[in-house]
Specification:
Layout (H helix, E strand, L loop, with lengths): L1 H15 L14 H16 L7 H6 L3 H10 L6 H23 L1 H9 L2
């Protein structure tokens, strides 16, 4: 899967090539985050809990970051506010997953390398 190949590539970079800095980034106007937020808001409005389309199914993996962003904003943020906050959450989720799935990277971070 893509996640495994990304972690494997990072492990190779850190362990075999000696890379000391890994940058996990997001970007503004991310279509996937926008789509996940729109799908979440539509589902909430309609009272639906299951994805309603194939695209919604693909975006389900990003729904937790949109939901957390909405919680952070205490329900008072616009869709754009949720998207911006969800982008930040997605970056931190990427870091969390990298550290969770890669023992070697986790150990390098732990040791300060």
């Amino acid at each position: 899967n893509a996640e495994g190949s990304m972690v494997g590539s990072l492990e190779f970079s850190v362990n075999a090539l000696g890379v000391k800095l890994v940058v996990v980034m997001g970007h503004t106007e991310c279509g996937a985050i926008k789509g996940a937020t729109a799908a979440m808001l539509s589902a909430q409005e309609a009272g639906e809990h299951e994805p309603q389309s194939t695209l919604d199914t693909l975006l389900v993996g990003l729904r937790p970051v949109a939901e957390q962003a909405q919680l952070d904003l205490k329900g008072s943020g616009s869709a754009e506010d949720i998207v911006n906050r969800a982008t930040l959450h997605n970056i931190f989720l990427g870091i969390e997953k990298l550290l969770l799935y890669s023992e070697s990277v986790r150990e390098k971070v732990k040791s300060g390398e």
